[in-house]
Specification:
The complex is a heterodimer of chains A (84) and B (307). Chain A is an all-alpha fold and 84 residues long. Chain A is 56% helix and 0% strand. Chain B has 307 residues and is an alpha/beta fold. Chain B has a single domain, classed as 3-Layer(aba) Sandwich (Glycerol-3-phosphate (1)-acyltransferase), CATH 3.40.1130. In chain B, 45% of the residues lie in helices and 18% in strands. In chain B, helix 8 links the parallel strand 3 and strand 4. Chain B is globular. The two termini of chain B are 15 Å apart.
């Protein structure tokens, strides 16, 4: 399973997105606001989940802002961190 | 009225003008705290007698705190409460203008706070709009790690914080809840670094979605659960700290409660309500001991459908 698919599964199962299935989440759907509807508290949990599942730390706002836009941007961030 | 509408109607901005603030600052420089207090009594009398719109703001709380009070007694309670708020604001300016040695601050629970910090999981301080939180913060000088405050300043507010009077830099790092994702990632960062994060637990700053309904003074109020979620996510302990004015030039800061939040599943406020309720119970105890030092001048119970 690639990173994007893993992320979608984590979002649905661990952030309790009861109305969605991983298949319904598109790569470019906004994580916050109109897209998936996550809020600021979900962001906290998502950062912790990324560290737990991928061993990648989102250290600060500079890293977090561009990474936490869509599933695709977050997956790209994780991939880059793993390679670096 | 929806919670969001009521939030827009309510503001924490000072009701005084720049000139009025300036007169108090002048009196403090010339005659110290007593001179400012003397003028304050007249100003408070004006607001209580001639500005019923301002007096009424404190009535929802007073009706619950003093349920059997007559109209005349409530009038007196209003006077006392607005006077105590005025004294706190004067004291804050006194510390800023004349220096921190003008006020004695006693801390109860110092060793316990140090023990919590020694856990190295960060520490969340939850306070409330009671007493003088600036006095409370000044008593935390012994803390060796940085202290971060979640604080939203109303646009155009001319009321000064104590460090601004002397032109000093803010001794704390301010996290603005209007920032990216409500400042949540910044808050997570400071806890991960083992630092102190200080938030207010008695007012909602953002979305009503992040509130839990708990009992407070016999009715349901909606209080924010963001800090409890952060505690659950990071393992950081929560210290509930309240300050109270105990004399003309003295304050006491008390560690009222330590709250431990386990990793809670679920996204709703209901999951965190038991922990928010612990805070509300501690706050209610404070209002029993210091009835006139509770400064939420709006109807916290307006969405209580059980009333």
């Amino acid at each position: 399973m690639d990173i994007k698919e893993q992320l979608k599964k984590i979002l649905v199962e661990e952030l309790n997105l009861e109305d969605l299935t991983p298949e319904e989440i598109t790569d470019d759907m906004a994580l916050f606001g109109e897209g998936l509807g996550l809020d600021s508290l979900d962001a906290v949990e998502l950062v912790v989940l990324v560290q737990k599942h991928f061993g990648v730390e989102i250290k600060d706002m500079e890293e977090g802002r561009p990474a936490l836009q869509t599933v695709a941007t977050l997956a790209a961030f994780i991939e880059k961190k793993r390679q670096g | 009225m929806s919670p969001n509408e009521s939030q827009r109607r309510w503001s924490s901005r000072s009701i005084g003008s720049k000139l009025q603030h300036g007169i108090f600052y002048f009196l403090i420089r010339q005659g110290g705290r007593r001179a400012a207090y003397a003028l304050l009594h007249g100003v408070v009398l004006y607001y209580v007698l001639l500005r019923p719109d301002q007096r009424r703001k404190g009535e929802p709380y007073l009706r619950r705190r003093f349920p059997g009070a007559s109209g005349r007694q409530r009038f007196w309670h209003s006077y006392r409460m607005i006077l105590d708020l005025g004294k706190v604001l004067v004291d804050r300016a006194v510390v800023g203008i004349l220096g921190p040695d003008q006020m004695q601050v006693k801390l109860r629970g110092r060793e316990e706070l140090l023990d919590l910090l020694a856990e190295r999981r960060g520490l969340i301080l939850i306070g409330a709009h009671v007493g003088c939180w600036q006095a409370a913060m000044s008593a935390l000088g012994f803390v060796e790690v940085p202290v971060n405050l979640l604080m939203q300043r109303e646009d155009g507010d001319i009321d000064r914080h104590y460090f601004e009077h002397a032109g000093r830099e803010c001794p704390y790092h301010i996290i603005d809840p209007r920032g990216f994702l409500g400042g949540s990632l910044e808050m997570l960062d400071v806890l991960k670094r083992g630092e102190v994060l200080s938030v207010m637990g008695d007012r909602l700053l953002g979305s009503d979605k992040n509130a839990a309904a708990v009992d407070f003074l016999g009715g349901l109020v909606r209080l924010p659960f963001s800090a409890y979620k952060l505690a659950a996510t990071t393992g950081a302990p929560i210290a509930v700290l309240f300050s109270a004015k105990t004399g003309p030039a003295s304050y006491e800061l008390e560690l009222a409660k330590v709250i431990r939040v386990p990793a809670v599943a679920g996204r709703s406020g209901a999951a965190f309500a038991p922990y928010v309720a612990e805070f509300a119970a501690a706050l209610e105890k404070f209002t029993r001991e210091h009835p006139y030092q509770f400064f939420n001048f709006f109807d916290m119970w307006q969405n209580d459908e059980t009333k």
